[in-house]
Amino acid sequence: MLLTWVCRSCKDKLASMAIRQDDPRVAALTSQAGEDIIEYGPTGDLTIRILCEDCLEALTADEPEITFVRAPELH
Ligand SMILES: [Zn+2]
After folding, report:
1. 42 in a domain, yes or no?
2. How far does the centroid of ligand 1 lie from the alpha carbon of residue 13, in Å?
């Protein structure tokens, strides 16, 4: 399955990662994030709707759930 991180404000694709469906990170993610953040695709892929750095800075609203759902660090 594929995890894709998309900015929910500017719709930018931030990151994507192929992952096993039984990977513990999937369970962690789905338990932390609500259905308003995670979108389940027809093929079982997940889209995680977060805010990119730019949009995060642009918004003054305090949305604490963002800190739990971040794109993976890219090295
Ligand atoms: Zn954005």
Report:
1. yes
2. 9
* pTM for the structure as a whole: 0.71
- Confirm whether 54 is domain-assigned: yes
**What total of structural domains would you count in the chain?**
1
Centre of ligand 1 from the C-alpha of residue 52, in Å: 4
Cα(75) to ligand 1 centroid in Å equals 21
Cα separation, 56 vs 70, in Å, equals 12
The alpha carbon of 27 and the centre of ligand 1 are apart by a number of angstroms equal to: 25
Residue with tokens 């308003």: 36
Answer yes or no: is 74 within a domain. Answer: no
List, for residues 4-57, the tens digit of each pLDDT value.
999 999 999 999 999 998 999 999 988 888 888 999 999 989 999 999 999 988
**49 within domain boundaries:** yes
Structure tokens at 64: 């604490």
Alpha-carbon distance of 1 to 28, in angstroms, equals: 16
